[in-house]
Amino acid sequence: MKMTFRWFGQKSDSVSLKQIKQIPGMTGVMGFLDYKAAGEVWTEEEIRAYIGEVRAAGLECEVIESVNVHEDIKMGLPSRDAYIESYKATIRNLAKYGVKVIVYNFMPVFDWLRTDLARVIPEDGSNSLYFDEKDLGDMGPLDIVRRTAEASKGFSLPGWEPERMAELETTLKRYEGMTADGLRESFKYFLEAIMPVCEECGVVMACHPDDPAWPIFGLPRVVHSMEDFEKLVALHPSPNNSICLCTGSLGSNPENDIPAIVRRFGAMGRISCLHIRNVKHLGPRVFRESSHLSSDGDLDMYEIVKAMHDTCPGAYVRPDHGRTIWDEEGRPGYGLYDRALGAAYLNGLWEAIDKASK
Ligand SMILES: [Mn+2]
What we know:
The chain is of the alpha/beta class and 358 residues long. The chain has a single domain (2-356), classed as TIM Barrel (Alpha-Beta Barrel), CATH 3.20.20. The chain contains 13 helices and twelve strands. The strands form two sheets. An eight-stranded parallel barrel has the order 1-2-3-4-7-8-9-12, surrounded by five helices. Strands 5-6-11-10 form a four-stranded antiparallel β-sheet. The two termini are 16 Å apart. The model has no long low-confidence stretch (mean pLDDT 94). It binds manganese (II) ion (MN). Residues 208, 246, 249, 275, 320 line the site of manganese (II) ion.
């Protein structure tokens, strides 16, 4: 297990590299350039600057997140080839600076989605990200974009980049008639185009599951269950076509057996990294993000870490979203305190499981 932390860069993160470095067991960051639009090439200069800073703080940057896939690629438009060429250029540039894993997703239009970014947890007065499908029905896509932007406390939110959301109505219209199979066809085309480059420069692509783990606003989604992952790995046989196993995203659907999914694809060598967090189900399609502790949510963290230990022990891990606690000011889900507690807890589970296995 290589323990890491998401870091948005000096200008846009409330957490410093020094703070990250001081969390026990931290080996590096999962890097992120929050100002890059989907389809833009990440230049060598930008990558060198970001990774240089990380390394100067004594941390590694072997995983980069959210190199977003342009909507034209997902829609399968003729213009996709140019965007795929840009994507390949970004892969090559990242590889030159030691990046080994790129996390991405293939969700049309919307990335992760919540209906409240700061829902108070009555038991202890902390707050966390919250979702209720009923609220979504009342709001509609444009309302949810406006509300999410307003609630972001001035921080950019990954997946909610303003330029992606600006043309929302047009984009939604263009997806009309797109089926899950159609989306998968576009996915296959994308993977077939980029896999040779990944193999050539030693970069593994890690697909992040849909969050929440079902289709929203009538848009198809194809990465949110054991069956979907079976189809995803079958889209391209290369081990460079891998999964970023996000327990909280998959866990939004109580029917997903996360430890079983980790075991299945870990044993196949298709899990290169994990986002680990816990969720508490409050009703059908209603949930909040809880602390990492198993008894605070509905996921069994011991079983998840054990499955990882048994099948993909070398994977990169990061504590995913945390609650906002101790009156911290920061980006919703990405404060320091609760994620640091999550990392410490995961380290403890790992040590116990590892020693017991010997
Ligand atoms: Mn995640």
